[in-house]
Amino acid sequence: MVPTWQTFSTTKGGERELTATRTEIDGAAGATTQAGEGGRRTVGIIMNGVTGRMGMNQHLFRSIVAIREQGGIELADGRRIWPEPVLVGRREHKLRELAERTGIERISTDLDAVLADPEYEVYFDATLTSARPEAVRKAIAAGKHVYTEKPIAPDLETALELLRLVREAGVKHGVVQDKLFLPGLLKLAELVRSGFFGRILSVRGEFGYWVFEGPEPPAQRPSWNYRAEDGGGIIVDMFCHWRYVLDNIFAPVKTVTALGYTHIPERYDERGEPYEATAEDAAYAWFELEGGIVVNLNSSWCTRVNRDELLELHVDGTHGSAVAGLHGCRIQPAAATPKAVWNPDIPNDIDFRSAWIEVPQRQSYDNGFKAQWELFLRHVVDDEPFPWGFDEGAKGIQLAELGMRAWRERRTLDVPPIE
Ligand SMILES: NC(=O)c1ccc[n+]([C@@H]2O[C@H](COP(=O)([O-])OP(=O)(O)OC[C@H]3O[C@@H](n4cnc5c(N)ncnc54)[C@H](O)[C@@H]3O)[C@@H](O)[C@H]2O)c1
Q: Would you say the CB of residue 230 lies under 6 angstroms from ligand 1?
């Protein structure tokens, strides 16, 4: 391994400090190299926010490192896409730790420097939502293709601005829509496609778990999630997911009604200090979908789980029903529906749970984040279709914004199309 490139920045004390190194790994050529030795097509990726929960676990370890461990992504003509990331963040020691754990050599605390480097053609952002637009604007201006965590921006106006910018720049763009790749929801989508439900009547969903208030046990989510001023709140977090889940699996969302609540007004942060929770930690929402499907979805960080999975969607249709989770999916066709009779005076003699059939696992499922990364990189390299661009990302934050408004104004709001 031969270090070939370094950048320095000036520290507060005026000393020059090493902020990034570039190393040729295993002879891989520069990031924009076309199929070189062994038909490898290296794609340089700026990964910003990899010291965070999602950036590190799902995007770095479970996606990019996993893709490298499997030898890259095979293309139809036998070439392989080889992701070559530079890990970007604000704390150098954290980046160094990550570099050691992953074997990825390139790190930088200087986003501008790596953006100016033509070796990197993709910018990925898993930083705080509030920090995202500025970095994404710079990346677009530098001609990078952009892939981001959801939401693409903290508000619809900014999301539409970013959509306009990627279109004008002609760069490729994508937003994480990981729930669509969950085995349980893939099975559910297949049931919908096959007509299993007949006419779908309603969807009732429960998402959530208890997030500890701290200090002991410490909270298992970052404290910014509970501060509105830092872009927190479960509506902005979850409605982006609900939008693409409902739109893609069932039908486009037509209206939204929501009630947010801050059940726990004080929590303890990462340093064990108390802080005021200014964002809602639960949201009780109703959505009406095209075709008359009524959806009731509860999202809560203040509920103790008595379900099989942290997310469950119960779908009722004229010909059958299903309960889908992250992994599993159970069905009950109309012909196997037991006859329930309301009589509170005698104990119930039907075991309702046993009247459901588990949908068998007929294929293996990859990690959803990794699966979507592979599709995005194929899109970048070979122009393969990638339907989850910033236009879809804007729809997510649109629904979150409308949900907040519906709650504040105590009314049902229409969801207009995004032009
Ligand atoms: N797809 C999903 O299921 C899912 C789940 C949770 C969070 N998210 C999204 O992922 C993003 C990150 O969430 P998280 O839970 O990993 O948060 P986190 O707090 O664990 O990580 C945030 C990252 O951003 C960096 N950061 C913080 N402030 C910054 C700033 N001002 N400038 C640049 N970088 C900064 C931090 O160093 C860290 O690397 C959010 O946009 C969130 O909406 C997605």
A: no
* C-alpha of residue 386 to centroid of ligand 1, in Å: 23
Probe residue for ligand 1, chosen from 87, 92, 137, 149 as the CB with the greatest number of ligand atoms within 8 Å: 149
Give the chain's domain count. 2
Per-residue pLDDT of the chain (419 residues; tens, 9 = 90+): 222 223 323 333 333 333 333 333 333 334 445 555 459 999 999 999 999 999 999 999 999 999 999 999 999 889 999 999 999 999 999 999 999 999 999 999 999 999 999 999 999 999 999 999 999 999 999 999 999 999 999 999 999 999 999 999 999 999 999 999 999 999 999 999 999 999 999 999 999 999 999 999 999 999 999 999 999 999 999 999 999 999 999 999 999 999 999 999 999 999 999 999 999 999 999 999 999 999 999 999 999 999 999 999 999 999 999 999 999 999 999 999 999 999 999 998 899 999 999 999 999 999 999 999 999 999 999 999 999 999 999 999 999 999 999 999 999 999 999 97
Rounded Cα–Cα distance for residues 282 and 304 (Å): 13
Domain containing 61 — which CATH number?
Answer: 3.40.50.720
The verdict on 150 and 189 lying in the same domain is no
**Is the distance from the beta carbon of residue 133 to the nearest atom of ligand 1 less than 6 Å?**
no
Ligand 1 atom with minimal separation from the 49 CA: 39
**CB-CB contact of 142 with 115 (8 Å):** yes
Residues 229, 330 within the same domain: yes
What atom in ligand 1 is closest to the CA of residue 176?
1
User: How close is the Cα of 48 to the center of ligand 1, in Å?
Assistant: 10
Using DSSP, state whether 409 is helix, strand or coil. Answer: helix
Residues 384 and 406 in one domain: no
Domain with 226 in it:
180-361+396-414
Asked whether 366 and 228 are in contact (CB, 8 A), the reply is no
Q: Are residues 132 and 32 in the same domain?
A: yes
At 125, which helix (H) or strand (E)? strand 120-125
Q: Are residues 193 and 288 in the same domain?
A: yes
Residues 102 and 239 in one domain: no
Q: Which atom of ligand 1 is nearest to the CA of 55?
A: 16
Contact predicate 49/125, CB 8 Å: yes
**Cβ–ligand 1 contact at 49 (below 6 Å):** yes
Long-range Cβ contacts of 290-293 (<8 Å, 24+ apart)? 290/251, 290/252, 290/254, 291/200, 291/251, 293/200, 293/201, 293/202, 293/203, 293/250, 293/251
Same domain, yes or no: 309 and 376: no
Distance 55 CA to ligand 1 centre (A): 7
